[in-house]
Amino acid sequence: MSALSTFKNIYFMELRKLITYRADFWINFLGQTVFSILIAFYLWTSIFESQGVDTINGFTLNKIFFYYLIVPIVFRLQQGETIGAISGDIYEGRLNKFLLYPLSFYLYKIATYLAHSSFFIFQLFALTIIYSVFFDTKNEVNFTFINLFLFVIVLIVSSITYFFLNSITELLAFWADNIWSLGVVTRFMTSFFGGAIIPISFFPQWALSILDYTPFPYMINFPMKVFFGEYTLSTYFQSLTILMMWMGLFAVVSNSIWTKGKYQYTGVGI
Amino acid sequence: MRYIRLYAYFLQFSFSKAMQFRLDFCFRIMMDCLFYLIQFLFFNVLYLHTNTLAGWDMDQMSIFIAGYIFIDALHMTVFSTNCWWFPIYINRGDLDYYLTKPISTLFFLSVREFAANSFVNLIIASVLLATMISNYPGEFSSFKIIGFVVLLVFGTLMYFFMHLIFLLSVFWSGSPRGFSDVFFAASHVMERPLKIFKGPVRFTFLYILPFGVMASYPASFLLEEATWEIVLTVVGMTFALFCTSLFIWNRGLKVYSSASS
């Protein structure tokens, strides 16, 4: 069986597992969306009203509302599986099977990770369509096939980048007794410095200059810019290249930790 | 008295367990400190674009932020780990073991694990709160400061009861985490001043899902007029949530079907 076919089988197997709790999934999705939107709407309405302006930092109220509708899903999509997807295997001795399977550990884990991620793509497009039907989005988003295609590419690359970044902390479980909080730290950093909590264009210029040297803006702010069509082909490919370089770097670090770590593994769980 | 003695044992076990996982102990402190930093950074960035938010300037907002950080730290220390295990016990049927114990199962499962590592963060959060109050340009009476802290403790209890209510849905849904994702999304309401919400949404966050009361009302007590209305609302809502969670717990136990749940 080719690697691609194995990948496809694992991916669909994980998707089937995920749709077991459909009602739970949709209630959580609707709940998260409603609260996230309500909080953003009232917070920013209050700011726009107190300033008496129509635009702040290039954002109209309508655009910022749309931003906060989409960004939590982009963030969740990028997060894939929950924290503990790899460290749990190490602690509980489930890693044994991966060492025996005739397939790459990373292939298996990326397939399951992307299955979790792709679950959110349906939500993303459902919300975008619903919002576009009820609200005027002509000034905010230019929906074209090429835009959506480039957006999906960025989402896949940023998800895999986050997978490798997260795997670095997860694999420290070979040595550390509990790494859950490290995973949360990675999540906090990505969400705030990437633009999931507030668009990073609101940050002062000096902070943006520093952030340019980190992977975070490329993981959330960049996909959001592509979604809103705020890019040229040259800036798109430049940012995508930088994102892929970060992905490569995280993959190399992750792989070297895996190579060293598996010799620490006792196979009995903690 | 029996419950106090039991809680003292829980504390002993929790501290000795935390000392076995020293690295995690440090990681958790780091994690919470980063969370606190991000909360302040977020509002600092907002205040670059506005002078007031919900009628509060940055000094007043800093006290509000420190207030909800204190609630979060107290909840993380006393209840959070227990909340994590709650749906797992119900789903796996592990609840059987606890139901047979000669004490209140809800009490046992709610406070059994004291997060000793988060206790350090509770100290940090308390220092942060004290610093924000002492750095405030105006002056507060001792009555107001004590009232503020007491109301924050009530806010923590409200936060815990709300968390419990969302988690107990697992009795009926059988899902792995209950509606905890919805809870965490809703809990961000606590991190915004209630005054920004208007109309029916404000009513909802005040009386139905009272996340807007937990930190905003104690902050209003300190920063604005200290009224009995604030005190009664906070205490009354805490009691109402306690009764609601107890009611749902009892109803849930009736549908609990052990290992096959």
Describe the overall structure.
The complex is a heterodimer of chains A (270) and B (261). In chain A, 72% of the residues lie in helices and 1% in strands. Chain A has 270 residues and is mainly alpha-helical. The longest helix of chain A is centred in the N-terminal third of the chain and has 30 residues, at 22-51. Chain A starts with a helix and ends in a 9-residue tail after the last helix. Chain B is mainly α and 261 residues long. Chain B has 13 helices and no strands. Chain B has helices spanning 2-20, 22-46, 58-92, 95-99, 105-111, 116-135, 142-167, 170-173, 180-187, 199-208, 211-214, 216-223, 228-255. The two termini of chain B are 34 Å apart. The mean pLDDT of chain B is 89. Classes of the chains: A mainly alpha (270), B mainly alpha (261). The interface between A and B is large, with 37 and 38 residues.
How is the topology of this model organized?
The complex is a heterodimer of chains A (270) and B (261).
Chain A: H1 3-18, H2 22-51, E1 55-56, E2 59-60, H3 61-79, H4 87-91, H5 95-100, H6 105-134, H7 145-171, H8 180-194, H9 205-211, H10 216-219, H11 221-227, H12 233-261
Antiparallel strand pairs in A: 1-2
Chain B: H1 2-20, H2 22-46, H3 58-92, H4 95-99, H5 105-111, H6 116-135, H7 142-167, H8 170-173, H9 180-187, H10 199-208, H11 211-214, H12 216-223, H13 228-255
Short description:
The complex is a heterodimer of chains A (270) and B (261). In chain A, 72% of the residues lie in helices and 1% in strands. With 270 residues, chain A is mostly helical.
